[in-house]
Amino acid sequence: MLTLAIETSCDETAAAVVRDGREILSNVISSQVAIHAEYGGVVPEIASRQHLEAVIPVIGEALRQAAVTLDDIQGVVATKGPGLVGALLVGLSTAKGIASVRNLPFVGVHHIEGHLLACFLERPAPFPFLALVVSGGHTHLYRVDGIGRYRQLGQTLDDAAGEAFDKSATLLGLGYPGGMVIDRLAGEGDPKRYPLPRPLFHDGSCNFSFSGLKTAVATLVRKEGEQVKEGQPLRDLCASFQAAVTDVLVAKTAAALEAEGLSRLVVAGGVACNSGLRGGMAGLAAAKGVELFIPSPILCTDNAAMIAVPGDFYLEQRLTDNLTLDAVASWPLPLAAAHRWLQ
User: Fold this and answer.
1) Helices (DSSP H) in the chain: which residue ranges?
2) Is 133 exposed, middle or buried (0-12, 13-18, 19+ CB in 10 A)?
3) Using an 8 Å Cβ cutoff, are 18 and 5 in contact?
4) 147 and 87 within one domain
5) Exposed e or buried b for every residue in 315-328, given b needs 16+ CB within 10 A?
6) Do residues 208 and 199 lie in contact, with contact meaning Cβ atoms separated by under 8 Å?
7) What is the pLDDT of residue 137?
8) Among 277, 273, 147, 149, which residue's Cα sits nearest to residue 208?
9) Which domain range does residue 32 map to?
10) At what angle do helices 179-186 and 275-288 cross, to 10 degrees?
11) Which of 17, 167, 232, 326 could hold 66 in an S-S bridge, CB 3.0 to 4.6 Å?
12) What is the pTM of this model?
């Protein structure tokens, strides 16, 4: 099956053509980072307008790179949620329009479901496995027993890890988005120089909290002044911050693996590009004898090919959606999956 997938949940307009939910024929991404950098974060109204301008050209380029036309497409999938509603509506409405005109089956996909199955585009993880999805808006742990069979084990109680990276980068004058800058500077710093907190490190749950860590960075900046925003102190603070986030994510993941008796781990989402986290998870896997699956960076950040993985599965199972489907800003994954099987 050739599937056209569309993703517009935040500030990337993306389209992909994927064969059988595994083989990427094209994966085109138009980023709005430069536009939103001026404002220090994503502006929803601007994001929606940019999606409107980009979505048709991006789909056209995806078809061109795949060397196919809409006549060859056998199913259409798009992100239904969670995300920015205005942004989601652009991609979802475009997908429904194509499906309607071409009389093609259509599926609205959960954004996080795409992330946790993105590794299937390179190296499929056998079920069951533990999945850590960590991004700008999400930090969740799931037990995955199959496509559409998810049990949430833990989540962030406040800021997601990626949000903490970007907000801390802003405090340090590193611009937006700042996660990649912190990662680069951390590689040249001493992670032990600044004793930052590890929130919920020993609470016995699988939940996360990063707002206190962000506050600790703000307090340190006020105490140390401008000197901590430059030179070696800046590199050391970035390394200390990254180590704190990584330590919490690794410890919680290790506890969940043990509690669930699982020997396979998937790490996904934009923060899975972070070198400190990738190294920490590699160390955990080696120490515990766990098989680790982390997609290539291009498949960790928001993209449309990942949406095609669950989309293709639901199309094959004829678990399709009708064209009245609406976008949703908040959508718990286990609830979404259960509804899919019950409809």
Assistant:
1) 33-37, 44-66, 85-102, 111-116, 161-171, 179-186, 211-224, 231-260, 275-288, 297-300, 305-316, 333-342
2) buried
3) yes
4) no
5) beeeebbeeebebb
6) yes
7) 87
8) 277
9) 2-117+299-342
10) 70
11) 17
12) 0.94
Q: Which amino acid is at 190?
A: D
Taking the C-alpha atoms of residue 246 and residue 277, their distance in angstroms, rounded to an integer, is: 5
- In the block, residue with structure tokens 């595994």: 22
Residue 282 — very low, low, confident or very high, per pLDDT cuts 50/70/90? Answer: very high
Instruction: Give the number of other Cβ atoms within 10 Å of residue 12's Cβ.
Output: 22
Residue 343 has pLDDT above 70, yes or no: no
CATH number at residue 173: 3.30.420.40
Q: Give the dihedral sign, CA 306/312/315/316.
A: negative
DSSP state of 208: B
**Could you say which DSSP state residue 115 is in?**
H
- Six-digit token pair at 10? 């935040």
pLDDT at 339 over 80: no
Count the Cβ atoms, other than its own, within 10 Å of residue 126. Answer: 9
Alpha carbon separation from 238 to 162, 179, 199 (Å, rounded): 14, 10, 17
